[in-house]
Specification:
This protein has 302 residues and is an alpha/beta fold. It has twelve helices and eleven strands. The strands form three sheets. Strands 1-11-8-7-5-6 form a six-stranded parallel β-sheet.
Length: 302
């Protein structure tokens, strides 16, 4: 049975170190968060980020814009924050309403304040081995594995998912650690067979319980990036079986959060595994705070 990779505990350690340093050196990193529209999940994430900023003593500026906001209005705000001396990081919460061009808006953020690591300049620097802001979730995954003294060099890493937010940057980070990396996606043939050879298997596709125990090699390390809300009994019974504990939770709470990995099956075969919730999720916010602090240090040391 697997040992849990406790992202919640590790993120708490990171945040305590950040707070201690800010207090000791009288640092005031600033983070601006822009939310456009009323997406419920996005609203929750924004509140969590603002709460963490206040706990750490960061300058926190939140901007909640109407869903009818135009590109010109959003662009004007981003340019204003690019020039704001109190702000070291700008976070544009995705997804944006359909009429807004996410790619164009993200590219307006100054690369020096792109603490999400999504700007093409930072993506290019990461690819070419230069110092850059790294997307928060991939950075958190690598740091979590290192926290548990898991050797990455020479390991066969299989990543399911090729997004610009997780899959692609994580592949580069793993290559930088001298791992051998395979990226799988919806067109990959014999997916289960490819995954079953992985020393480290990362699932980042947004499909609840997609990765069954058959995908997992005995003794593999399993990192589950997915956070999926299952909120119907019918879906729960199909995924987890009638009368299961998770189905009962859906009946009681109205929903249950699960990962992309069938945890119960993978847990029996893996050597290490991240839980959902409490695995990768908390580290994403911790890395955002870490990136913001690093941005601030670059600015004040110029």
């Amino acid at each position: 049975m697997a040992q849990l990779l406790d992202g919640k505990r590790f993120s708490k350690k990171i945040l305590e170190e950040i707070k201690e340093r800010c207090e000791k050196e009288n640092l005031k990193p600033g983070l601006a968060v822009i939310l456009v529209g009323n997406d419920p999940a996005s609203s929750v994430y924004v509140r969590m980020k603002e709460k963490k900023c206040k706990e750490l003593g960061f300058v926190s500026k939140g901007y909640k814009l109407d869903c009818e906001t135009t590109e010109e209005e959003l662009a004007s705000l981003i340019k204003q924050l690019n020039n704001d001396p109190e702000i070291d990081g700008i976070l544009l919460q995705l997804p944006l309403p359909p009429h807004l061009d996410s790619k164009r808006m993200l590219e307006l953020i100054s690369p020096e304040k792109d603490v999400d690591g999504f700007h093409p300049v930072n993506a290019g620097k990461l690819l070419t081995g230069q110092s850059a802001f790294v997307p928060c979730t991939p950075r958190g995954i690598v740091e979590l594995l290192k926290e548990y003294s898991i050797e990455l060099e020479g390991k066969n890493v299989v990543i399911i998912g090729r997004s610009n937010i997780v899959g692609k940057p994580l592949a580069i980070l793993m290559l930088n650690e001298n791992s051998t990396v395979t990226i799988c996606h919806s067109r990959t043939k014999n997916l289960k067979n490819v995954c079953s050879k992985a020393d480290i298997l990362v699932a980042a596709i947004g499909k609840p319980y997609f990765v069954s125990g058959d995908f997992v090699k005995e003794g593999a390390i399993v990192v589950d990036v997915g956070v999926n809300r299952v909120d119907s009994v019918e879906s729960g019974e199909r995924l987890f079986g009638k009368g299961s504990e998770k189905v009962e939770k859906i009946k009681e709470k109205g929903y249950v959060l699960v990962g992309d990995v069938n945890f119960e099956e993978a847990y029996l075969k893996a050597s290490y595994i991240t839980p959902v919730p409490g695995g990768v999720g908390p580290l994403t916010i911790a890395m955002l705070m870490k990136n913001t602090l690093e941005s601030h240090l670059k600015r004040v040391k110029k």
